[in-house]
Structure formats: C-alpha cells, structure tokens
Amino acid sequence: MRLYAFYINSSACSGCKTCQAACKDKNDLKPGVNWRRVYDIQGGEWKSENGVYISFPFAYNLSISCFNCETPKCVNACPTKAIYTNENGLIVIDHDLCMGCRYCEWVCPYGAPQFDQDLKMMTKCNLCEDYIIVGKKPSCVDSCPMRALDFGTYDEITEKYGTIAQVFPLPDPGLTGPGLVVKPHKDAIKANSESAEIYVREDL
Amino acid sequence: MNENFTSLLFFTILSQMAVGTLIFRELILLRGGFEFISYQFRKRSLQVIVILLFLSLVIAFLHLGNPLHAFNAIKNFGKSWLSREIFSLSLLMAALLLYLIIVLRNNHLRTERIISFISVMLCISFVYSMIKLYMIPSVISWNNPFTPVSFIITTFLCGLILLAVIIWKNFDGFNYIIALLTAILVICSLANSILFYGTFLKQVYYLFIIRTALSIISLLIITVLNFRFQSNKTGIWWVILSLIVVVSEIINRYIFFLSFEKSGL
Do A76 and B262 count as a contact with CB atoms less than 8 A apart? Predict the structure, then answer.
C-alpha cells in the first residue's frame, strides 16, 4: 500500500531549483548528492509552412526525489537489507549495514539513492521524516515559490489531483508503484514524439 | 565508465573464467575417469582456478564503498539476486578450497567426485545469479537476452582457453576439440556482440573494429594450431591465443558496461 505521495505540478514549475536547495540545506547534503533534483526537459522541431521553416521548441521541468514506492526495487535489491521500510512506512537506509555496492542506484528508475563520496555509502531522501511525523510537509514542498509541489497521504493526493504518474522521461509507474501524481506540462505530450532530452545533466 | 564499473568488469571476467575452467576440467575428468587423469593436471588446474577465483573476489571488494560491512551481504538472500550471487560465490570458494585440500592429499577419489559435483552445481548457481542481477528491468540496455548469452559465452570461452593453456602438453587428443570449440565460441561471441551493440555500435565503432580484428587473429591462430598439433611448440600459441581471447572479452565487457542506460531517470 502506498502511504505517502508527492504531487508535482509540472505546468507551474519554473525550474528555479529552490526545492533542491532547500533539501540540500535541510539535510546538509554535500556537493554531488542531490536527494531532490530538478530535471530540465527540452525538445522541439522545425516545421515547413509555405516554404518557411518555423521552430517549435518546448521546455518543461520535473522536480524528482524518492517516491517511497509500493514495490521498491531498492529494498528488494539491497543485499545487506540496509534499505528498509521503517516503522513510519518510510524507505530509509541503515548506515550500519550499507556496504556501498551501489546496486540500489542501478535498480531505482527514479535515481533516488545517491552515493556519498565521503561516507562511501548510499544516501537517499527520507521525505523529511522528522517533519512529517509532526504534521509538517517536507522542506522541498514548503519552499517552492510556485506552489508546484504538494505532499500528503497517497489517498489525499490522488483525491485532490488524480492519478497520472507518467510523463516523459519518468518510467512506467507499474514498475515500482511510486507515491507520485503529476500534472503534466502542456507540451509534455510532444516529448515522446519530438526527440525531447534531459538537458544539463551535470547539474543533477 | 566510473570506478565502480572498472572493478566489476574484471570481477565478472575473472570469476566467469574460473567457473568456465572448472566446468571444462570436470568434464575432462568425467570423460577420462578421475583415476586415469594425471595427478599433475588435477592439482595444477585446480590451483589455477582457486587463485583466479580468489583474485576475482579481492577485485570485487574494490568496488565497495565500505568493505567492512560486506559480511552483511547475504542478509537479503530471500529477495536480492546480488545476495544470492555473493552467497553462491562464497560457497563455491569454500568448496574449491576443500576440493584442493582433498586433491593435494590425493587419496580420496570418491570424495573428489562428490565435491566436484557440488562445485559444478555452485558454478551454475553463481553464473545464474550473476545473470539475474544484471538483468535489471530499469536498465534497458542490459535487460535483454544478449546479457545471459554474453555471460555464458564468456564463461565457456575464457574457461576453455585457460584450460587449454594448462593442459596443452598433457592432452594432445583434446587439442583438436578445444581448438574447434574455441573457434565456434569466438564466432558466437562476436555475433552476439554485433546484435547486442545495435544502435549503440556508432558510439563504440573503434572498439568494435579492435574486437573484430582480435577475433580474426584468434581464428587464424586456431588455424595455425590445427596444423601443429603434433608439434611440441604449440604452448606459446595457446598462450598468445588465450591473451587475445581474454583481451577481446574484456573489450566486450567494457562495451557492455559502457552501454549502461536506464529507463526513466
């Protein structure tokens, strides 16, 4: 059963990365470790109209973190049982067990587990557990100036925003059952047919 | 390719080579009868396999961020293929050490047969676990039939060629069969990689050219060996052939890791 869910309004997201910065600040993350990442998706094509070529570019953003999946690949794949679902229903990492093999990094289609070069172990978003157990929302959600993010129980979020969880370049939600609802950007429908790509990957 | 992949590249090649050598060794023993095969061959081949497997195990540790926690690695045996792979490898290592002790004592042929059977079963379990752990649904470039075919071919090809280097003096009769099998496996390996690379071939065409050249040289050496079976100077050719085959397989595995591409993010 999916306990919690994030809502991402891709139409409203301006790609400012305040959520990413708030997450890094709250969790004291080192450079290179981004529990929340804002993906910049761009694409488009040239079309000929009456002998004149006109460009039709599009771009949108997606703010991605751990979605506390229903069938988490990371939990099943971890050989040491370092990644587990805790008493609050959140998927977390026990650093007394993690051996830093990075297999969870391979199996997660959302790129949630992140390797910490100093710790030499995996780390991941814990949905700001300390906040949510006292009824607050994760720092990324509250920091968003565009109010493009929301968080709540899965039932609350799906009731408010529907159940769409797939938009380019997100994977098939059937793979892991993520706690995620997306409001796609109006141009996201073009992404599959018009060679959209994730830009500036080095920022992620 | 990051440092994580580099050690995994050598771990997979060396461990598969050790496993392949062991499987062919046991086939030879089964065909020739344990008591009729020379003690020197039984001892030397097993020593090489144990050293190779131990080396692969050490290399595997290099890719871990925190090797001190490695003793937890079989905790998720029920769900994780990585756990199962590590478990199979640990059991195989233990079985081979026991096997080696028995062979060195040279007076328990019945026990040798039993431990030989157990070791081969563990080899199969190990390679199967390795295949399953690399066939990750979210890694689209690996989750296809070319991955198991590639792993199985490398296991048999590298194993066979190492065994040929170990036994070339002792088993003239086998040389023809080994040469023929090697040629077939070299061709299969190249064919599998051509199919696997697919659209990815454009990015690695220079490596593919090197690999094709090495495969052709391997086949030429096998042809030369075919005419020199009676000569007692074929040893150097087997060594050269084995080096070329292993380098070619390393390039193939390098391309395999280079092709890493996830669906999603």
Answer: no
How many CA atoms are closer than 13 Å to the CA of B32, on its beta-carbon side? 18
Type and span of the H or E element at A85:
strand A83-85
Task: Characterize the bridge pairing of strands A180-183 and A4-9.
Answer: parallel
Is residue A123 within 8 Å of residue A93, measured between CB atoms? yes
Q: Find which of A35, A78, A95, A180 to mutate to test the B interface (most B CBs within 10 Å of its CB).
A: A78
Using the beta-carbon criterion (under 8 Å), do B138 and A106 form an inter-chain contact? yes
What is the rounded distance in angstroms from the CA atom of residue A167 to the CA atom of residue A173? 10
Give CA B231 to chain center in angstroms.
28
- Interface ipTM: 0.89
To which residue do tokens 């890094």 refer? A24
Residue A57, domain CATH: 3.30.70.20
Coil, helix or strand at residue A197: strand
Contact B264 A99 (CB under 8 A): no
pLDDT tens digits in sequence order for chain A, 204 residues long: 678 999 999 999 999 999 999 999 999 999 989 999 999 999 888 888 888 998 888 899 999 999 999 999 999 999 999 999 999 999 999 999 999 999 999 999 999 999 999 999 999 999 999 999 999 999 999 999 999 999 999 999 999 999 988 888 899 999 999 999 999 998 887 776 667 888 777 666
- Domain ranges, residue A76: 4-203
Tell me whether residues A101 and B83 touch, CB distance under 8 A. Answer: no
Cα–Cα distance measured from residue A113 to residue A125, given in angstroms and rounded to the nearest whole number: 8
Looking at beta carbons, which residues of chain A come within 8 Å of B133? 103
* DSSP line for A129-146: HHHHTTTPPPHHHHH-TT
Instruction: Count how many domains chain A has.
Output: 1
Three-state secondary structure call for residue A56? strand
* Residue A175 forms contact with B (CB below 8 Å): yes
Among B42, B21, B248, B2, which Cα is nearest to B127's?
Answer: B21
Q: Which of residues 10-39 of A touch B (CB under 8 A)?
A: 37, 39
